[in-house]
């Protein structure tokens, strides 16, 4: 292990007691070429206390070329951060620091800020799975104009913490990715209301190079979306926007669409786990830039009670919305339209049933774009699945088979295999070539086990993609 040419070193899922940690960290004394180090003991694999880790950390001072340092789930606390404070000045090239699942408190953040003050190249900071962000002490370290990525997950956010955090972004015009997620298992860590967040959002106007913005489970609603509408024109390079788990309604979608008008590079919008209905969906379809080709609206209030054209997106996820009895008719009409661009459609848990499945299948008869459709958890029986038989491989005639849908490859947990057998087709003349031969759309070997999707139609089968 004492190889001075090593540049990357990863220790994940290993038990670390005092003997193992002592040996491991002593090894780093001879690795001044090390550029990336990741030690992650998630799952209570680190049988070390803070003081013991503090005794190991000074060995990292030899790693003067370190660019990425991850020390996760190692019980780091005050003593360890005091040791890191002494090491960081030797790591002038440090760009990424990740300290997940430790025991940071206010004293730790002060020590962290002091140690990072000379790390002028740092670009990516992750404060995840830590209980607290100190609202006063991180300033010098965080106000780095070199940050390109910033992640805050699993952290308590009240008014003082959020005020400090968002004020920091005023000096980060290099920021390209920002993720703030206030969700944790069993609850939400953001103790902020819509008005509070609306007051912080203007700070993001300085982030003119933003490419990915994710603000989830922060109680955003109308006021916050109005503030975002004023910020988005400054983010012309924005490609991905995620505002999941908030309180967005139809008025919010109109505000967002208005603000995103000039974001011509925008590709993906995720508004899952909100309160958006058909009106909001229509506002997004009509108002979003033409560049947006992926829309995620999982678990909202969409019913498709009226006809809404879903032609413009390549990816549409409306899973978890309870569609009305005629809701699948609108989807089928869109799928049947020659201008439909959909390649992936997710309609899990949408109350579709057998009748809705038959309607969707009929819409796919002449579709040549959709390759994947997820239909899980819709109470579909064998009768419902049988609706796909004549669509995917119609054996009524050679022309019918030729004109069947050969584009669809995946139905959720199942992949489709089409095997057009010569003896299943009426032959116009002896020795005629089969129209599509022995074709396996899913790309799986023909010897793999097949489970019939419907009875009586030999050429068509599905395979469990998990097999």
From TrEMBL:
Q: Which UniProt keywords apply?
A: Cytoplasm, Cytoskeleton
User: What are the annotated GO cellular component locations?
Assistant: cytoskeleton
Q: Where in the cell is it found?
A: Cytoplasm, Cytoskeleton
The main location class comes to cytoplasm
Q: What protein is this chain from?
A: Uncharacterized protein
Biological source species:
Thalassiosira oceanica (Marine diatom)
InterPro entries per UniProt: DRC5, Leu-rich_rpt, LRR_dom_sf
